[in-house]
Design goal:
By secondary structure, the protein is of the alpha/beta class. It has three domains: 142 residues, no CATH class; 134 residues, Nucleotidyltransferase, domain 5 (2-Layer Sandwich); 131 residues. Strands 1, 2, 3, 4 and 5 form a five-stranded mixed beta sheet that branches. The protein has a five-stranded mixed beta sheet with strand order 8-7-6-9-10, sandwiched between helices. It is elongated, with a radius of gyration of 31 Å.
Length: 435
Amino acid sequence: MLNATFDAPDLTTFCRLDELGLTIVGQDVKHDEAVLVCRVVDADDWCSRCGSQGAARDMVTRRLAHEPFGWRPTTLLIRVRRYRCSGCGHVWRQDTTKAAEPRAKLSRRGLRWALMGIVCQHLTVARVAESLGVSWNTANTAVLAEGKRVLIDDPHRFNRVRVIGVDEHVWRHTGRGDKYVTVIIDLTPVCQKTGPSRLLDMVEGRSKQVFKTWLTDRTRAWRDGVEVVAMDGFTGFKTATTEELPAAVAVMDPFHVVRLAGDALDGCRRRIQQSVHGHRGRKGDPLYSARRTLHTGADLLTERQQTRLSDLFATDLHVQVEATWGIYQRMISAYRDEDRAKGRVSMEKLIEAVSQGVPAALTEVCTLGRTLKKRAADVLAYFDRPGTSNGPTEAMNGRLEHLRGSALGFRNLANYVARSLLETGGFRPHLHPQL
């Protein structure tokens, strides 16, 4: 730092107005606002119609919100000279397109700052608008338009996608109930261990046709490049994948497979609770008190939890719950096995065991067995393809929930999709290479 070469102080350079073709000629700094008076560097006094030189006529002022300094809103007052052509009489203004788009209210640097705040610092639109000193609608419209132009509409955004995850997501309206969107995630960086997953798109609705239409809209070369699709147990996603991505391998991720077994365990526990006690679980009922302990992996049980389960299974009244719990634990053990080959063999044996010869009294296990047998290939595919879990997709849903909460809800789906893409679309390195 001591050997660095320093230039003379220059407010125009410090505020990066030289990049906008402006120079500062005055300032008015207040405790809550900074106003910088600027002029356009280039004269621009030649007529674009006849080529004659124009004469200065008068000046007008253009007001732009600029990037804030020290969280103090900064406003540019640009003095724009108007010319009249000496030949054809045409009147025009100095070109300010380097500073901002025509009719824009934010300078290009201000717009870049706002976009980085939304994407990199995860600021709300309200916070960005306050820092820029503009209305919420002005900031939101400008940021979404710029984000769509620079990032979302990038034709190379879908390149090199090999593994995708698909899931449903609840979009809650204010006073309009719940609606659903289909979320498509790029899991390729996770599988290749090069980075986190990223949101590819969100489509209104949750059905086979919705996902199939989205896949159809992609190019044939892109669809041929997709190797794996991670999904939950919804058959609509499976059918759409089979029809549009015949060469891709469908993987039913562990989260949803274990959830199926957990639902069977809960269903059995509730059924036995009603059969033995004649009412739903209450405080003090053994089955109800152990509802969370039953979902804990056997290798993670504390001594107190082990005692609770031993007491629970000591009576023959709970033998069906014990049998279902054993199946649930076998499934967890198969997924946790460090040797994937052994884990696959364990899962194959488990699917075989629950798909035939199960007593009719274990209705929940019978239903689970039919589902696992139908989707056996998808369940077992996970063991051959590490990293293809839909877990990152579920994590993405959590980030979208946080976005919706910080924004206090969304009424417009298009805005929600755009904000979600900016928030979780993996655009941070594009705006800030060090992130």
